[in-house]
TrEMBL record:
Residues 1-74 are annotated as: Disordered. This is GntR family transcriptional regulator. Coiled coil: none annotated. InterPro entries: GntR_C, TF_FadR/GntR_C, Tscrpt_reg_HTH_GntR, WH-like_DNA-bd_sf, WH_DNA-bd_sf. Residues 52-64 have a biased composition (Basic and acidic residues). It comes from Streptomyces anulatus (Streptomyces chrysomallus). Gene3D superfamilies: GntR ligand-binding domain-like, Winged helix-like DNA-binding domain superfamily/Winged helix DNA-binding domain. Residues 75-142 form the HTH gntR-type domain.
Amino acid sequence: MEQGSAREGVRPAYAPGAFSRAPADGRMPECRVPEQARGGQAGAERTGGRPADGEQARGEHTHSEPPAPRAVQRHSVRGQILDALRAALVDGELVPGQVYSAPALGARFGVSATPVREAMQRLAVEGAVEVVPNRGFRVSERGPRELAELAEVRALIEVPVMMGLARTVPAHRWCGLRPLAEATVTAAAVGDRAAYAESDRAFHRAVLMLSGNEQLVAVADELHRRSQWPLVSGPATRRADLLADASEHTALLDALVSQDLAVVQALVREHFAGADR
């Protein structure tokens, strides 16, 4: 679901399993991990959870390893402010076309202007805001055409990748994404647009990460983030729209687990077709 989309109608919410081929008793296939995939876990159980001879336990530090560095507090504050500003963009609290100063926003968040200015500079690089000399930052104005173009580019990237993964990724790997899909449903149910935006991207990012192509994941995630910024005009995203898209995530997983490629293709194309409306 793209937060900036404005739709005239509401797509139906897909009940989990509605597009999967269920057994005769009506129950959905369970997410069972194949025996060979549990080999590592079984080995650990046989050794009492200890690593095998000659192996070093994961996360165990030797004396020659330096301790992990502490996080710099200033960077932490900037990251928190960046997250807060992104949420405000998605929620429409930062209005397209309006100019906001770093000191004013700093007072709003209870911090100095410096981390706000640094976060805003990052948003300027992403295209979410524009620098206005001696005044602050103007929230970028977007129209339906830009949203449609973003949806088209995302579809060109993600649809073929998802179809390729549907043919090669085993069912138990898809089952591992179930909590991410359910998180989008939870956020949609309460109409939390900012939480939905984060969980929506997390789900798509996890799917694409199965390809092993980190550059593809980074490009797709950036396009996804930009598609979630609000339009300069139009109604706010409705909870019904969020629920409709969230239900597509769970229906897609059902189809992937069942390896129903025809349904996977239909759902993926519908998901991106709805992104530009």
